[in-house]
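batch_manifest entry 22 of 60
target: Guided entry of tail-anchored proteins factor 1
source organism: Branchiostoma belcheri
requested by: lab member K.T.
priority: normal
notes from requester: please return tokens only, no post-processing; we will run our own comparison against the previous entry in this batch. if the run fails, retry once and flag.
--- input ---
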Amino acid sequence: MAVLFAIFIFLAVYLSGLAKKLIPAAAKLVMNYLQRETEGVRQLKEELRRLTTEQDSVSIKDEFARHARLQRKISKIRDQLKQTGREKSTLAIKVSWVMSAVFYVCYGILMMSLMWRYRGEPVLLLPADWLYPLGGVVAFPSGVSGAVGITFWLVVCNRVSAVLV
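--- output ---
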């Protein structure tokens, strides 16, 4: 039974490591859903294309005033699109931060609850002389000689999971 429990804990830690690696991709999916291009932005982009094409057809030497007016309109639309882009990037940072915070809170609660629930029980029992110099550290907090405690097992699982992920 202890081996199954140890494997279960390892899988939980490993899947948590995978989830941590997937946070940026998940945030990107959420952002794509939240920030679909609106009709107003599409109209601004189309207007920008139209004005740029029109400005390219106007000779700056022959019709300077018209060219300058078009340039001011183009600049105004580009500024509006840049502002929209800044708002999108600010929202993307917020969404990513919130998703990371929620993940780390859930992960912390999971780790603390495992350590609290199984603090007195050994995860694995090994011969005591296998763990001779570090037996007390490895057995913490269970205190059973030759045991691997939950704290040590979680540290080992986290390190192995970090290497595998």
